[in-house]
């Protein structure tokens, strides 16, 4: 097992290097001069040349890429163009809250999404199955930023107006309490939950048609054990794979 993991990591190394170089090279193809953008349109040619030399933009692209990889391996990811703070410090400031929000969103979406998918698969063509799949379709189709705006309007404007409350039900901005996590978690978890519900339903419907499921039922096992011990356990492989991909998506959407 250890040799297999080492071999896979070694095979992934050329892929990572190639992908990073393609991204690095593609950015250089974008029209415009980064040195001019940083120096400003009113900057003199001499100052623009100094900025270009400071950033290493006057060197061949292979040299620029080698310098970039060397700096990254040493923990130097450059400085933010907006704040001037080192990028690594910017990441360290925001990463804990990003991980917290993404983790809670993934847990919430997994619990509800898998539960809805299993229930829909065990009750095909029922009102619950049809209704849950309609909501799942809406969840997959809604952009996260739009849902976030709608939640802010609902909890901060509409609910206080309907019930005569003095202020928002949930804070639309800020951080530090669990109330600040509710709306972001709902917005981030909705799309993931809908996708997991649809995938769980499809996987469970396929698994429940297998021979070993009929054998377990023929032996007189309880339906609950058949569904969760034999059915869900064998249907989890593609679901867990998607969970890993969705965690990366949630990290990108929770920054």
What does this molecule look like?
It contains 10 helices and no strands. By secondary structure, the chain is mostly helical. The relative contact order is 0.09. The protein is flat, with a radius of gyration of 25 Å. The mean pLDDT is 83. 77% of the residues lie in helices and 0% in strands. It has 2 domains: 2-76, no CATH class; 90-253, MetI-like (MetI-like fold), CATH 1.10.3720.10.
Q: Tell me roughly what share of residues is in helical segments.
A: over 70%
CATH topology of the largest domain: MetI-like fold
Mean pLDDT comes to: 83
CATH architecture of the largest domain: Orthogonal Bundle
Count of individual beta strands: 0
Query: Can you summarize the main beta sheet?
Result: none
Q: In angstroms, what is the radius of gyration? A: 25 Å
CATH superfamily label of the largest domain: MetI-like
Series of H and E elements: HHHHHHHHHH
Poorly predicted runs are none
* Class by SSE composition: mainly alpha
The general outline is flat
Defining traits:
255 residues; 0% strand; mainly alpha
Short description:
By secondary structure, the chain is an all-alpha fold.
Topology at a glance:
Layout: H1 2-28, H2 34-39, H3 45-55, H4 61-73, H5 87-122, H6 127-141, H7 144-163, H8 179-207, H9 211-218, H10 223-253
Helix pairs in contact: 5-6, 5-8, 5-10, 6-8, 7-8, 8-10, 9-10
């Amino acid at each position: 097992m250890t040799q297999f993991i080492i071999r896979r990591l070694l095979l992934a190394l050329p892929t990572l290097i190639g992908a990073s170089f393609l991204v690095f090279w593609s950015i250089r193809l974008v029209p415009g001069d980064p040195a001019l953008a940083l120096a400003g349109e009113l900057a003199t040619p001499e100052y623009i040349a100094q900025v270009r030399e400071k950033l290493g933009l006057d060197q061949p692209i292979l040299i620029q890429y080698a310098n970039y990889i060397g700096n990254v391996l040493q923990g130097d990811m450059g400085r933010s163009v907006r704040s001037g703070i080192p990028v690594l410090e910017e990441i360290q400031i925001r990463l804990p809250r990003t991980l917290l929000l993404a983790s809670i969103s993934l847990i919430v979406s997994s619990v509800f999404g898998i539960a809805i998918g299993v229930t829909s698969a065990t009750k095909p063509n029922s009102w619950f199955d049809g209704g849950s799949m309609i909501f799942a379709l809406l969840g997959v189709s809604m952009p996260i930023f739009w849902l976030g705006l709608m939640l802010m309007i609902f909890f901060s404007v509409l609910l206080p107006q309907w019930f005569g409350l003095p202020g928002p039900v949930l804070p639309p901005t800020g951080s530090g309490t669990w109330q600040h996590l509710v709306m972001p978690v709902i917005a981030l978890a909705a799309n993931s939950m809908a996708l997991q519900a649809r995938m769980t339903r499809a996987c469970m419907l396929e698994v429940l048609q297998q021979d070993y499921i009929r054998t377990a039922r023929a032996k007189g096992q309880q339906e609950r054990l058949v569904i969760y011990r034999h059915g869900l356990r064998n249907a989890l492989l593609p679901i867990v794979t998607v969970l890993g991909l969705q965690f990366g998506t949630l990290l990108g959407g929770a920054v």
